Structures are given as C-alpha cells and as structure tokens.
C-alpha cells in the first residue's frame, strides 16, 4: 500500500507541513503514527486534495468536515438534505461572484478601449 510523508504531501500540493498538521489537529486528516513520524495513506492524500479544493471554492473547514462526515457515514437523508443546502448556498455565492466578475471585466474592457483610443489620438 502506498504511503506518504508529510513533506511529500506538502511538496505535491505546494502547501506547508504546518497546514497539513493543522488539518490533522482539526480532525480532517488522520494519519497513522510510527513513532513520531506521520504516515499518510492514499485516503489522506485524497482528503487533502478535497480540503484544498473546497477552500478554493469558498467552503469553510466546518463545511468540509460535514462533507467528510456525510461520506464516512454512508449518506443519511438528513445529511444529504444538509449537503444540498450547502451546495445551493455555495452556488448562489459563486453565481453572484461570477456576475460581479463579468461586470468588472466589461468595465475594464471599456477603460482599456478608451485608453487605447486616447493613445491613438495623441499619436496623430
């Protein structure tokens, strides 16, 4: 079975070992111990990838923990309903952000065009 050292995971995901230990401290990762050495399994590596992806998408660590619990407890109706609520909330936030980004991108495009026109007019 493939195992990983904390330094290997830190390098692969471009994060600090301190971050990985923090995720362990809050219960999101549970590596085995061999003496003072942490030994991470494939499951830990996948969870770390999901933690980082969730954070990028704006999920809190509490929400990520809920997702892991949902997976670990084989998806009860209450948990699935809660998960749907989290997904709906995140989708709404991301949709608003996307709309804001589109507005700003359009404003930047217009400003760029005006600057380019001004440069062209000054060069004549």
Automatic annotation (TrEMBL):
- What Gene Ontology terms describe what this protein does at the molecular function level? DNA binding; DNA-binding transcription factor activity
Q: What SUPFAM superfamilies does UniProt report for this protein, alphabetically? A: Putative DNA-binding domain (SSF46955)
Organism per entry: Photobacterium sanctipauli
- Enumerate the UniProt keywords alphabetically: Coiled coil, DNA-binding, Transcription, Transcription regulation
Query: Taxonomically, which superkingdom?
Result: Bacteria
Q: Which InterPro entries does this UniProt record tie to the protein?
A: DNA-bd_dom_put_sf, MerR-type_HTH_dom, MerR_fam, Tscrpt_reg_MerR_DNA-bd
Q: Which residues form the HTH merR-type domain?
A: 3-70
This chain's protein is named: MerR family DNA-binding transcriptional regulator
Q: Which Pfam families does the entry mention?
A: MerR, MerR-DNA-bind
Annotated PANTHER family: HTH-TYPE TRANSCRIPTIONAL REGULATOR YFMP (PTHR30204:SF58), REDOX-CYCLING DRUG-SENSING TRANSCRIPTIONAL ACTIVATOR SOXR (PTHR30204)
Stretch forming the signal peptide: none
Q: Which residues form a coiled coil?
A: 94-121
